[in-house]
Description:
Largest sheet: 3 strands, antiparallel
Structural class: alpha+beta
Strand content: 25-35%
Order of helices and strands: HHEEEEEH
Oligomer: single chain
Number of strands: 5
Low-confidence stretches: none
Distance between the termini: 20 Å
Helix content: 40-55%
Amino acid sequence: MNKTQLIEAVVAKTGMKKKDADAAIAATFASIMEALTKNDKVQVSGFGSFDTKQRAARTGRNPHTGAEIKIAAYKCASFSPSKALKDAINK
C-alpha cells in the first residue's frame, strides 16, 4: 500500500474529504518524524512504537574492489509492533 492508497482507505473508512485525509496523514507522519529527530519515542497504543537507535561505526568492504571502507556511526529509526498488531498479522 502506498500513500495514495492509504489516503483512499482513510476516505473510505471515515467519509473524510480526500484533501482532509491527505492533510491528516501528512501531519501524522510529520509529527512522528519531528519527535524522532528529537530522540523522543512515539507510542501508538494497539499499533506499536517508533524509536531511534544508534548504530556503531564499523569497517565494511567495497564489494566491487574488496577495499576496506569506514562506515560512520549513525542513528536510524526503528519500529516495534504491539502485541495486538502481531496477533492481527498472525491470524
